[in-house]
């Protein structure tokens, strides 16, 4: 069997993030993943396709919310990853409840495990994508929710500590 290098990213377990953003006139959400690069200050990186509507809104607003998905949001994560926001209002189509942010204008997504309100620090083009470095300026956690992870095209509920 021939190895495809494009499959290598699927070997890295990662958080499931529902990135939400509001521009001047519209809002959008997409499925993403993020990684922290610094705890203090709280810096995260996220990659967004240049062809996406989300990219346009981030460029316009220089902010977004990293909604760390909960186990109850698997269907939403799949749906957001397969729908283009310039053609449809994802919030209406998928009946996404909004959570008002405290520090930025972009809304959070109800039902998420955590909300990280972020402001863009800088960005770097990477092929067909743009990698954003952003600072979390406020956050909230729903301790009753179970966070969601992704590995090899499958979703996992993170419940039981093993160490």
Shape: globular
* Lateral arrangement of strands in the main beta sheet: 3-2-6-9-10-5-4
Indicate the CATH architecture: Roll
- Contiguous low-pLDDT stretches (5 residues minimum) are none
Distance, first to last CA? 36 Å
Helix tally equals: 3
Total E-strand runs = 12
- The name CATH uses for the topology is Pnp Oxidase, Chain A
Classified by CATH, the class is Mainly Beta
- Give the C-alpha Rg: 15 Å
Q: Could you tell me the mean pLDDT?
A: 94
Order of helices and strands: EEEEEHEHHEEEEEE
Biggest sheet character: 7 strands, antiparallel
CATH superfamily: Electron Transport, Fmn-binding Protein, Chain A
User: How many structural domains does the protein architecture include?
Assistant: 1
Derived structural class: mainly beta
Which percent bin holds the helix content?
10-25%
Estimate what percentage of residues fall within beta strands. Answer: 35-45%
Question: How would you sum up this structure, described in words?
Answer:
The strands form three sheets. The protein has a seven-stranded antiparallel β-sheet. It contains three helices and twelve strands, in the order βββββαβααββββββ. The mean pLDDT is 94. The longest helix has 9 residues, at 53-61. The protein is 13% helix and 43% strand. The protein has helices at residues 53-61, 74-81, 90-93; strands at residues 14-15, 17-22, 27-32, 34-38, 43-49, 63-68, 98-99, 108-109, 114-126, 129-141, 148-151, 154-157. It is mostly beta strands. The chain has one domain: Roll (Pnp Oxidase, Chain A).
């Amino acid at each position: 069997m021939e190895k495809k290098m494009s499959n290598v990213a699927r070997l890295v377990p990662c958080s499931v993030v529902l990135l939400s953003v509001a521009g001047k006139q519209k809002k959008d959400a997409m499925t993403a993943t993020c990684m922290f690069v610094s705890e203090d200050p709280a810096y995260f990186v996220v990659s967004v396709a240049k062809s996406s509507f989300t990219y346009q809104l981030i460029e316009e607003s220089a902010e977004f919310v990293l909604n760390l998905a909960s186990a109850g949001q698997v269907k939403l994560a799949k749906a957001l990853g397969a729908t283009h926001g310039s053609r449809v209002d994802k919030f209406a189509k998928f009946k996404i409840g909004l959570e008002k942010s405290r520090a930025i204008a972009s809304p959070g997504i109800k039902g998420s495990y955590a909300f990280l309100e972020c402001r863009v620090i800088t960005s770097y083009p990477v092929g067909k994508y743009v990698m954003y470095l952003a600072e979390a300026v406020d956050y909230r956690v729903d301790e009753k929710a179970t966070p969601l992870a992704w590995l090899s095209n499958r979703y996992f509920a993170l419940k039981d500590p093993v160490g």
